[in-house]
Specification:
Length: about 240
């Protein structure tokens, strides 16, 4: 009986020691998991942007592009993000939209710029998309919609153009999970406050979209960003809490 107790005690100690050592190992660093993930994200971004830009006209006019770059720089610099790591593209498209791609690509449509009454409305949308980029929401969305095996094949170039276009459509024209959208909205409020911007403009932008929800351009936004009224409620609640 005494030997059995000693054996059990030795087993518990050995297990505890192994667990302690295991917990101290940086497995991500050991196997380069983070680096691999970053490489996949970058390769996906190259694939998607090449496909998207082939059919769209990227705006080069500095009068249009420079204000967008300034907003991105302001949001990033005051939130501890390197703005140089975000690839900003302004695209000539009437649809009211802005979206994040893998590879830290941020696409802003001219339709969104034209629809906004104030620059900080655009900044609110950009802040929302930067959260998607920083939080890895884009790959999460793709993994759910098209599967990890398709994602890996895309990076290896083993998938045809039609699949690339379908995957691209997932990014540009389907909604994120509500939990991810809410996370992006609430963190966007934090980003704007730190960047000395008024997040109330994000709420007012959504109110205006809801008011004009039946126009074709707004319908595109509503299909990818549903429940504007609910979003306004929790954004305004977040702003009030931050002001206390």
């Amino acid at each position: 009986m005494k030997k059995l107790v000693i054996l059990l005690l030795f087993t518990v100690i050995a297990f505890g020691g192994c667990y302690y050592v295991y917990s101290k190992i940086n497995w991500n660093g050991l196997f380069g998991v983070k680096k691999i993930t970053e490489n996949i994200d970058e390769q996906l971004g190259d694939v998607f942007w090449e496909s998207y830009s082939a059919e769209m006209e990227e705006v080069k006019d500095k009068k249009v592009v420079l204000p967008i770059l300034q907003m991105v720089n302001q949001l990033c610099s005051l939130n501890g993000i390197k703005s140089s790591t975000i690839n900003v593209h302004v695209v000539n498209n009437k649809e009211i939209n802005a979206f994040a791609m893998p590879g830290r690509h941020l696409v802003v449509h001219t339709g969104l710029i034209d629809f906004a009454d104030h620059q900080e409305e655009i900044a609110g949308v950009i802040a929302h998309e930067i959260v998607h980029i920083e939080s890895g929401h884009v790959v999460k969305k793709l993994g759910k919609e098209i599967g990890l095996s398709v994602i890996l094949n895309l990076t290896l170039g083993d998938i045809g153009g039609e699949v690339v276009r379908n995957a691209l459509s997932t990014i540009t024209s389907t909604a994120y999970d509500r939990s991810l959208e809410k996370e992006a909205d609430l963190k966007a409020v934090d980003y704007m406050l730190k960047a000395k911007m008024d997040p109330a403009y994000l709420a007012s932008f959504l109110k205006k979209l809801d008011k004009e929800s039946q126009t074709p351009e707004v319908l595109q936004w509503m299909s990818t960003h549903p429940d504007s009224k609910e979003r306004v409620r929790y954004i305004e609640s977040k702003i009030k809490s931050a002001a206390k």
